[in-house]
Design a protein that fits this description.
Layout (H helix, E strand, L loop, with lengths): L1 H22 L12 H9 L2 E4 L30 H10 L4 E7 L28 H12 L2 E6 L4 H6 L7 H14 L6 E3 L12 H11 L4 E3 L12 E2 L15 E4 L2 E4 L5 E3 L14 H9 L9 E4 L9 H19 L9 E4 L23 E2 L7 E11 L1 E8 L7 E10 L2 E8 L6 E4 L13 E11 L4 E9 L4
Helix pairs in contact: 3-4, 6-7
Length: about 475
C-alpha cells in the first residue's frame, strides 16, 4: 500500500509539472519585430557583393564609369556563374548580390530598354545574360540571390532614350524586367547617391517589388523605407565595418520600425577588379568582427576578372576565412561533458525556458524570464579551469530586440571578475579577445562564466551563450 501511495504521489507531481508546462504562456512579441525577409537576411550572416560590368574592362582607381564606355570591350570569355557560386560557398557566404547595372548604365541582362547592354557586346555574340546565368547557378547551389540596380545612369544622362521621355520611366521599366523575368529575388540593393536629384517614383517601385517579389528584403539608402518599412535595410553612413551596440529599432514615419544597417565592404579591387589582390586574411577577419560580430549582415565585395572568373588566389583566401569562422563557432567550451548551467530565475520554472537552452545549438530555443523580470544571471559552470578566448551571444530576435545592458563575468579562484560589458546584443554578438571591441582585453582562465542582463526593455530572451575556447591551438 505504501509503495502504491508513493507511486500516486510521483504521478501527481509529474501531472502538475505537465500542467505547469502548458500553463506558462510564451513571451509576447516586443514590437517591432523583423519580417520574414529581414529575418532571412539576419540568418545569412554575411554575403558576397559582386561588382562586374563595363568598369571591369576599364580598370582604374575610379569605380564610377561615365556612360561612354564601348560595349564591344565587354567580353568575359571564360565566364562561369557556377564558379562564382562555388567561390561564395568556399568562403561561407550564404548569398550573392550582383551589380546588374552600375553608374555607367551598362546592363548585365538582355534588356529592351537600351542597347547599352550585353546585346551590343562581343560576348556570346550579344546573346549572353549574366543575370540569368547567375540566378540559375545560385538556385542550383542553394544560395540567396540579390540585385543591385544603380539609381545613377551616366549613359542615360549623355545619350537619353528614344523609348522613354524621362529617366523615372526608363528606370522603372528596367526594374520591372528584372523583377518579373527571372523568378524569385531575395534582395534589392539601391544606391541612394544623388537619388533625391532624380525624378523617380519610389512609391511605384515599392508597389512593383511588393507585388512581384513579396519575399525580398530591400537595402534602400533612405529612398523607399517610407513605402516598404517592413522589409527595409539602412545605409549605415559609410562603407566598411560598424560600431558595437547596433540597434535595429529606428523611427520610420514616426513609428519605431525594424531597420538594421547593411554595411558594404571592399575585399578586392575598387569595387570592380583592377588587378589588385584580395586584402589580407586578418583585415577580412576584422571586418567580420565589426559587422557580423556586431549583429548585422554585411555585403563583402569580390571582383571577378576580365575572364569572368574569380581569381584563384581570392578563392584560396576565402577558404582560409571560412575555416577561421568555423573554428570560432566550433571551439565551444559550453559543449564539454561536465558543463552545467543555472540561472537566478527562468520563466515559469519550465524546461523550455531554462538556461540549458542557451547551449543546445538551436537558435529557435531560448532562455526567458517571467514578463515582469527585466534582468537575469545565466551561469555556466565548466567543471575545470579552461582558457577562454571569447564569447558568442544571440538574442531570440523573432520576438524583438530587448537587451539594453549586459556584462560578462569570469570566475577565477572562486571570485567573480567582470571582463566585458555592453548595451546591445541583437542577432549575434561576437566578442573575441584582442580583436574589435575587445582589442584591449585578455580573458582570464576560468572555471565558470556568467552572462548578466542588467537592463532589458522587455523580459530578456537569450538563444545562445557560447564560450569560445583557445583559438591559438
Amino acid at each position: 500500500m505504501k509503495e502504491f501511495l508513493v507511486f500516486l504521489t510521483a504521478l501527481a507531481m509529474v501531472c502538475v509539472g505537465c500542467v505547469n508546462q502548458q500553463e506558462v504562456a510564451e513571451p509576447e512579441a516586443f514590437l517591432p519585430i523583423p519580417s520574414q525577409s529581414q529575418l532571412n537576411w539576419h540568418k545569412a550572416e554575411y554575403m558576397m557583393f559582386v561588382h562586374f560590368g563595363m568598369k571591369t574592362f576599364y580598370p582604374s582607381s575610379d569605380h564610377m564609369g561615365y556612360g561612354k564606355e564601348d560595349p564591344m570591350k565587354f567580353d568575359p570569355f571564360n565566364f562561369d556563374a557556377k564558379q562564382w557560386v562555388a567561390a561564395a560557398k568556399a568562403g561561407g557566404f550564404k548569398g550573392i548580390v550582383l551589380t546588374t547595372k552600375h553608374h555607367d548604365g551598362f546592363c548585365n541582362w538582355q534588356t529592351e530598354t537600351t542597347d547599352h547592354s550585353l546585346a551590343s557586346s562581343l560576348w556570346r555574340d550579344g546573346k549572353g545574360d549574366i543575370v540569368k546565368d547567375l540566378i540559375e547557378a545560385c538556385r542550383e547551389g542553394g544560395v540567396y540571390f540579390g540585385i543591385y540596380v544603380s539609381i545613377i545612369d551616366k549613359h542615360f544622362e549623355v545619350a537619353g532614350s528614344d523609348l522613354y521621355d524621362n529617366y523615372g520611366d526608363y528606370y522603372y521599366a528596367q526594374l520591372k524586367e528584372l523583377s518579373t523575368q527571372y523568378g524569385p529575388i531575395d534582395e534589392y540593393w539601391f544606391d541612394g547617391y544623388k537619388a533625391d536629384e532624380l525624378k523617380i517614383n519610389y512609391s511605384k517601385i515599392a508597389d512593383l517589388i511588393r507585388e512581384a517579389q513579396p519575399n525580398a528584403v530591400v537595402y534602400e539608402s533612405g529612398t523607399m523605407s517610407e513605402f516598404l518599412p517592413d522589409r527595409s535595410l539602412a545605409w549605415p553612413g559609410r562603407h566598411g565595418g560598424l560600431g558595437p551596440d547596433q540597434s535595429y529599432r529606428v523611427p520610420i514615419n514616426d513609428v519605431i520600425s525594424w531597420y538594421p544597417s547593411e554595411p558594404s565592404i571592399i575585399l578586392q579591387g575598387n569595387w570592380f577588379h583592377n588587378n589588385t589582390p584580395v586584402i589580407s586574411l586578418e583585415t577580412i577577419q576584422n571586418y567580420y568582427l565589426s559587422s557580423v560580430g556586431y549583429g548585422v549582415t554585411p555585403l563583402m565585395n569580390i571582383s571577378p576578372n576580365t575572364e569572368g572568373l574569380i581569381d584563384e588566389g581570392t578563392v584560396e583566401r576565402l577558404k582560409e576565412f571560412k575555416a577561421w569562422v568555423e573554428k570560432i563557432h566550433a571551439n565551444d567550451l559550453s559543449q564539454m561533458i561536465d558543463v552545467k548551467t543555472s540561472a537566478n530565475s527562468y520563466r515559469g520554472k519550465v524546461s523550455k525556458y531554462s538556461p540549458e537552452m542557451v547551449i543546445d545549438n538551436n537558435f529557435d530555443t531560448y532562455f526567458a524570464t517571467n514578463d515582469s523580470v527585466r534582468n537575469a544571471v545565466i551561469e555556466i559552470n565548466l567543471g575545470s579551469v579552461q582558457e577562454i578566448d571569447g564569447f558568442i551571444i544571440q538574442e531570440y530576435i523573432p520576438l524583438g530586440q530587448r537587451i539594453d545592458g549586459y556584462s560578462i563575468e569570469c570566475r577565477v579562484d572562486n571570485k567573480w571578475l567582470e571582463v566585458f560589458s555592453g548595451k546591445k546584443i541583437g542577432y549575434k554578438r561576437i566578442i573575441l579577445e584582442g580583436r574589435a571591441s575587445a582589442s584591449e582585453i585578455k580573458f582570464p582562465a576560468s572555471d565558470g562564466v556568467r552572462l548578466i542582463i542588467n537592463q532589458a526593455l522587455a523580459c530578456p530572451l537569450i538563444s545562445t551563450f557560447q564560450l569560445i575556447g583557445d583559438m591559438k591551438e
